[in-house]
Amino acid sequence: MTIIEKIIAAHAGKKAVHPGEIVDVFIDVRVARDFGGANVVKNMEDHALTLADPARTFFTFDTNPTGSDQKYATNQQICRIFARKHGIKVYDINSGIGTHLLIEEGLVYPGVTAVSTDSHANILGAVGAFGQGMGDKDIAAAWAKGSVWFKVPPSVKLNLNGKVPAGITAKEVVLNLLARFGANELLGYSIEMYGDVVNRLHLYDRITIASMATEMGAITILFPPDKEVMQYCESRTGKEIEPVYADPDARYDRVIDLDAGSFVIRVSRPGKPHDTVPVDQVKKTKIDSAFVGSCTNGRIEDMRVVADILKGKKVAPGVVLKIVPTTDKVWVQCLTEGLLKIFKDAGALVSNAGCAGCAAGQVGQNGPGEVTISTGNRNFPGKQGKGEVYLASPAVVAASAVAGYITTADDIPEKPAVFDIREKEERIRKSAEKQKPHNLPVVLEGRVWVIERDNIDTDMIFHNRYLTVTDIKEMGQYALNNLEGYEHFPKEVRPGDIIITGKNFGAGSSRQQAVDCFKSLGVQAILARSFGAIYERNAINAAFPVLTYDDLGEPEVRQGDIIRLNLETGELENLRNGKKGKVHPFSEVQMEIYQHGGLF
């Protein structure tokens, strides 16, 4: 078996499991954040669920640890009250990012299973653990039952060999992987990393790469734990740990060999994490702000890189640099090592540990026309504000903050760029214009919306500024209003409509609202070539029909056609021309949940 198969089998009480098999998996660590946590509490209370094991259950307040938003503050307090009632440990606003805390506190280590309302919980693959981001229904089920259903994913073995060129960091490695595989070539796979390059990676390097598995569409990126990882985890847990490795005869869907010697410093252009280009293509692009932090690049090693570049220098005039460590321990270490003084002397804003701008909370957001370079893992439109976001390594971000434009650490000018106010005003004007809105049966029948796009992410479906909305009746008005050309979708859609779209629909975050907003409008089903893994789970658990297809060619479905769809057989008929086609029908588990009106 592969690593993922061994971990799942061990937690499902089975000797072996196989890709595609659906099993009940025992979850060692069950986490809800301040984003999503209140909805988990609501599910627990609405369904009179009892807590299976408080010792394995946690809250982490990382998305808005400043409590600067009234709705976030309210949700945090709802979680605190529930935690006091049931003896749940809360990693409150002074702690940091939950996934990092799980490793730092010794709660997660090789072979462990963990779920969180954080879509980047698969970051735990860095230590050889199986972490998954899930929606609030799944998390509530895990809290109550101790286990959740899961489909065993197929595995890919990725061998990374060769001599990594100078200046290439772990962030560049994963940006090069995104350039090679895009957002959906490895969709739904568990990726195991091997090779000479991997053997030389430190724990913080592995965390950076694993943190962007979600952006690649993968279930997880798993690193077989080496001596350094084992020593770190055993020092945190205080016990001897048995690592999990793949069998020598493990079967993989694909074995891929890559030469890291061809890797270059890359930057993701605004809008798509996988739209990466060599840094030279975007060099001297003027920036307004820079951000160092997120679960991808906010560890002490990243902070030291930034401090080395900033020492004795100033952030360029007109540029704002924001720095947010991943955990409070990293923040304190920055203080002890004198890094905070370097940051402040350079003119940076340093905030308490947390996720920062990624979840519309804390610092890190930008405004219309603002150009930001960030060490984060996502730059979907609207994800970090109304401006544009480039993704890069800590070294490139720090160098760019000093230069006033995108550059590398070895190419910082003696004098920073000076902005032309007229150019900046024009950029803001164009951005503002861009923001304006444009003028449980088995057989379903409905009018079709054909949305011919791939990689429609959850920020396009249901923007993060509405995450505090918990009433499903209010959610429909925001559906697809961050997808260009579909801002009026909530007003034009009719109850009973069916959406047909492309690959990787629902990529991104774990937010349940991205499913429930369609239910709110009466949309009957969504057909896609493939779905984001978390999105598909959320839809199935909410009894919302989502089905995949390979090719709908024969029925020639067009916008506005009426189709008849059989969820049980997968038969699809276009009533305009009488032609028939096939989609993949419901699985047994999906049908059972659907017929019960949802997971609960």
How do you describe this structure in short?
It contains 20 helices and 25 strands.
CATH class of the largest domain: Alpha Beta
CATH topology annotation of the largest domain: Aconitase, domain 3
* Beta-strand content estimate: 15-25%
Number of helices: 20
State the domain count.
3
The CA-CA distance between the termini, in Å, is 33 Å
pLDDT averaged residue by residue: 93
Please tell me the CATH architecture of the largest domain by its name.
2-Layer Sandwich
User: What is the 3D form?
Assistant: globular
CATH superfamily of the largest domain: Aconitase, domain 3
Largest sheet: 7 strands, mixed
Q: What would you note in describing this structure?
A:
By secondary structure, this protein is α/β, with parallel strands linked by helices. It folds into 3 domains: 3-262, Aconitase, domain 3; 281-433, Aconitase, domain 3 (2-Layer Sandwich), CATH 3.30.499.10; 443-595, Alpha-Beta Barrel (Aconitase, domain 4), CATH 3.20.19. The protein has 20 helices and 25 strands. The chain has a 7-stranded mixed sheet. The chain has a 5-stranded parallel sheet with strand order 4-3-2-5-6, sandwiched between helices. A 5-stranded parallel sheet has the order 16-15-14-17-18, covered by helices on one side. α19 (533-541) links the parallel β21 (525-528) and β22. α2 crosses α3 (70-86) and α10 (300-310) runs parallel beside α13 (394-403). The model has no long low-confidence stretch (mean pLDDT 93).
